[in-house]
Amino acid sequence: MQKLMIALSTAAVLTACNGDGKKTVPQTETDSFNYRVEQFADLEILRYKVPGFEELTLQQKTLLYYLSEAALEGRDILFDQNGKYNLTIRRTLEAVYTSYKDTASADFKAMEVYLKRVWFSNGIHHHYASDKFQPDFSESFFRNAVKSTDPTLLPLQTGEGVDQLLETIVPYIFDPKVAPKHLNQKDGDDLVQTSASNYYQGVTQQEAEDFYNAMKDTTDKTPVSYGLNSRLVKENGKLTEKVWKVGGLYSAAIGRIVGWLEKAASVAENDKQKAVIESLITYYRTGDLKQFDEYAILWVKDLDSRIDFVNGFTETYGDPLGMKASWESTVNFKNLEATKRTEIISKNAQWFEDHSPVAKQFKKEKVKGVSAKVINVAILGGDCYPATPIGINLPNANWIRQMHGSKSVTIDNITEAYDKAAAGSGFTKEYAWSEKEVNMLKEYGFIADNLHTDLHECLGHGSGKLLPGVDPDALKSYGSTVEEARADLFALYYLGDPKLVELGLLPTNDAYQAEYYKYMMNGLMTQLTRIELGKNVEEAHMRNRQLIARWAYEHAMKSNAVELKVKEGKTYVVVNDYKELRNQFGVLLTEVQRIKSEGDYQAARLLVENYGVKVDPVLHKEILDRFVPLHIAPYKGFVNPRFVVTKNDKGDIIDVTLDYTEGYSAQMLRYSKEYSVLPSVND
Ligand code: ZN
What we know:
By secondary structure, the chain is of the alpha+beta class. It has 2 domains: 3-51 and 335-638, no CATH class; 54-77 and 182-331, Fructose-1,6-Bisphosphatase, Chain A, domain 1, CATH 3.30.540.30. 45% of the residues lie in helices and 15% in strands. The strands form 6 sheets. It has a 6-stranded mixed β-sheet. The protein has a 3-stranded mixed β-sheet with strand order 4-5-16, sandwiched between helices. The protein has a 3-stranded mixed β-sheet with strand order 6-7-8, with helices on one face. Helix 1 (58-72) packs antiparallel against helix 8 (251-266), helix 19 crosses helix 20 and helix 20 packs across helix 22. The two termini are 27 Å apart. It binds zinc ion. Zinc ion binds next to helix 17.
């Protein structure tokens, strides 16, 4: 539940800071690295640099290489988790794409865009909005193209002909009524049966909830994450879990992951790290969730290694019941310079916990192990690719977080790439109220935004506690949104605290106002650029941001502290009193923490449904109309660098370098070839 995505449709920040946070200069002209790769549909593909890689030792580079291979081997697992026929559809499209002759036709071009979107979303549904995207090529074109493709290239099941393949996948691609949503969260629907994700088969929401409720022992102080690594299916009228492990579901891919992890263990930086990797291997072999917790505890305690990784079934955003985890991986190493910033925050964690406005009984008496670091990623995989978070806070199990702490990271080189790519887009100029706000964002936007991420990850998620006996899943489908709101509010509240200036984290007492303004502008208006007209807000982070901004606006407008003003037919956010806005963030933080601590489902539901979901259609249209001339893609993702390995005659690795020249389609096709061992349908 603890993954932070980029807050804005484009980082609304036009400049990058030079480290001391005082003066900022635009850097795109002087920086020859090509951050922008290509743009299509509502997406832009960027490239990230991996600063500091060259300075690592050969052993560290080799370790990164092995872990990066393990990160890429899980890609097909995610495709299958996201929908039963995603792999079949992707492989069919790739077969046509790489062999079709008339590549100049409009239908082919439209199919190419569709395929690029499938790659981006790891399936046929929008990665963020969750709706199935509609193809702009005709069904007859597609049928003919598939039929004219060499059948040996197509993902045909044993004994299956091309016609049968088409009967299976054509409705999934073309019929808007078939599997319309990857994740349905509509209040009152059977969320399991109406979601296209492949976590349940033939099971109703009630059956799934009953199945797992029967497993749960509320007196267990260290419960496993029930259902985390399995598909729940009904076979012969009986519910059973198909576990994702070696010898279970997805065995071929998991076996390859394990193979690379074994190599990684052999070049680990130290014994602690080696134990972490070996523990993960055991978990992949057994599928035992107790073992997963053991691994997570070892992982959270490995703080001294320079290199770190996430690899596994991790985040539960894609499951309507918030239990089953999508596969993801990142491989990274510590950015030593930038980590100094988060270390200051971590060192003062107890002070922040003690001074928050939250009621005493919901606070942690002792904030444990809030480790925080700034990292550079070297590879993104699974559910972190190509769309990726800018911060990660793990593990997710509440009791592990309370007893052993959590690891919190801010991903510096991704934030940097967003920032560089957004420079000069005209976004802030269009949506900010006046020159004053534009300048404020220019001056302090980047540093305040990074600090917000640090506070969110290092302190926000780690703060507070559940009352004894409260089910961690009590908030059900509202859990993710409430958790993100809690972390964001904690960060917002403290951004405005003079303590940050005292600690040397912000240059002036009003620098925080840049983030406040940006947050309100984004939550009330500009994040709507990512939503189609007529649709509601679905994604947990977006719901959280609208929830906070709307709630704060409604409560702060009473004293005129925040207004929505119209100038020449355009709506703007105006903040007249930042102190009062901070007060309101504090009030909402208090309430959101209460909801979380008490597991108050009804209050969570009302808060999210009333403030986080619904969109004002008139304002929405205006925001979209203003966005069009800017030609900015609302969503962004990344291509990875390619690891280039040099070996000597004996086969030993003697050098590892990174190549930044691979294009988007080339990379996707290569991954589909080199890291694709699962059957097209996995039952
Ligand atoms: Zn978060």
